[in-house]
């Protein structure tokens, strides 16, 4: 039984496999456990193996690649059009086996252990940031019920809490004051964890060559540089800079027909966290244009006169992503003079 292509539908413990021969005929339909699957593929000649990029896919892909197979991961939304009729695990595996052979299919780069560790650190830190915001909003809600309002920003909330805990307030019951004190302790603990995670990311960014070069780009710091390296590595998966920007959802959606192009707002596809970090970096650059004159600042100022500031921020984030692609693929450093000529 000659198998040239293998489609694997992944799950937590069981894996449904469809094998195709050189003519595209199904010659294998079987269910394996993780251990059984690795034993089965270890005794086979080199095959083209496809799977959806999901939880546990990168570990399995690395294990199969070590056995000498050509392993390719695909986004699940690109596999769905190949599913025939109803949905079950074997039909999904068959669709994966067909999709992985398409020459125009877009694949997900297999991440290394270092990239997965870095990505996990970013995700944990982002969860802590969201939890800190939730704690602050809950305290603001409690204070609003007692007729106390304040300006936006954590500093104003901290100042108000200091007044309440320092002088006491007869409008608060003892139970409410205890709850506010517990929430303040939780806030302080989250602040400590976020600072430790940020310090760890900064240390990694300074030690990694690619991150150090990316931080030369205006608006890209330790957070953005490490997030980029964790997500795309050396970015060779993308054919050009616009492909990376499109993967991040920073290019317009298109709805053209009859030969008439129609561009809409940005697509907002891909990595939402990385897109958000790039937009934050772009806004920080826009705030410092007048204080730090540069060729990039001239471009931002000229665009701001014609477009809304949000449109300018997205355009700058798009440009930052393209510059980052060029630096990662070529191993070069940022050059402002070359940007001015462009």
Mind explaining what this structure looks like?
With 342 residues, the protein is α/β, with parallel strands linked by helices. The chain is 57% helix and 11% strand. Strand 2 and strand 3 form a beta hairpin. Helix 5 runs antiparallel to helix 7, helix 5 (113-145) crosses helix 9 (222-232) and helix 7 packs across helix 9. The model is unreliable at 338-342 (pLDDT under 50).
Shape: globular
Termini Cα gap: 57 Å
Largest sheet: 5 strands, mixed
The helical percent reads 55-70%
Provide mean pLDDT, rounded. Answer: 89
Helix and strand composition category: alpha/beta
Question: Which sequence of strands runs across the widest sheet?
Answer: 3-2-1-4-5
How many structural domains? 3
Report the uncertain regions: 338-342
- Strand proportion, as a percent range, falls in 5-15%
The whole-angstrom Rg is 25 Å
For the secondary structure, the number of strands is: 7
Compute the number of helices. 14
Q: SSE string, helix = H, strand = E? A: EEEHEHEHHHHHHHHEEHHHH
Write a concise keyword list for the protein shown above.
alpha/beta; Nucleotidyltransferase, domain 5; disordered C terminus; 3 domains; 342 residues
Q: Mind sketching the topology for me?
A:
Blueprint: E1 5-9, E2 14-20, E3 26-33, H1 34-42, E4 48-52, H2 57-66, E5 70-74, H3 76-79, H4 89-99, H5 113-145, H6 154-167, H7 174-207, H8 209-214, H9 222-232, H10 241-247, E6 252-254, E7 263-266, H11 272-287, H12 295-306, H13 309-330, H14 336-341
Parallel strand pairs: 1-4, 4-5
Antiparallel strand pairs: 1-2, 2-3, 6-7
């Amino acid at each position: 039984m000659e198998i040239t292509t293998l489609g694997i539908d992944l799950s937590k413990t069981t894996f449904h496999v469809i094998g195709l021969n050189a003519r595209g005929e199904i010659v294998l339909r079987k269910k394996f456990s993780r251990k059984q699957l690795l034993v089965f593929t270890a005794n086979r000649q080199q095959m083209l193996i496809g799977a959806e990029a999901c939880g546990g896919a990168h570990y399995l892909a690395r294990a199969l690649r070590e056995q000498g197979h050509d392993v390719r991961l695909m986004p699940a939304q690109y596999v769905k059009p190949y599913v025939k009729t109803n949905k079950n695990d074997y039909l999904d595996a068959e669709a994966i086996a067909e999709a992985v052979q398409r020459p125009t299919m877009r694949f997900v780069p297999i991440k290394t252990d270092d990239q997965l560790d870095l990505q996990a650190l970013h995700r944990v830190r982002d969860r802590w940031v969201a939890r800190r915001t939730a704690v602050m909003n809950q305290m603001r809600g409690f204070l609003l019920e007692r007729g106390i309002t304040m300006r936006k920003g954590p500093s104003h909330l901290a100042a108000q809490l200091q007044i309440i805990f320092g002088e006491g307030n007869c409008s608060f019951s003892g139970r409410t004051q205890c709850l506010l004190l517990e929430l303040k302790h939780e806030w302080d603990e989250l602040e400590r964890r976020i600072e430790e995670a940020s310090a760890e990311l900064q240390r990694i960014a300074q030690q990694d060559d690619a991150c150090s070069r990316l931080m030369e780009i205006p608006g890209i710091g330790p957070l953005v540089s490490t997030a980029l390296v964790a997500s795309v590595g050396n970015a060779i998966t993308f054919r050009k800079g616009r492909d990376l920007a499109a993967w991040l959802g920073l290019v317009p959606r298109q709805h053209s027909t009859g030969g008439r192009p129609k561009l809409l707002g940005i697509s907002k596809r891909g990595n939402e966290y990385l897109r958000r970090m790039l937009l934050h970096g772009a806004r920080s650059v826009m705030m410092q244009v007048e204080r730090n004159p540069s060729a990039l600042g001239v471009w931002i100022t000229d665009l701001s006169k014609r477009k809304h500031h949000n449109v300018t921020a997205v355009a700058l984030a798009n440009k930052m992503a393209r510059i980052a692609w060029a630096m990662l693929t070529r191993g070069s450093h940022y050059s402002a003079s070359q940007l001015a000529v462009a």
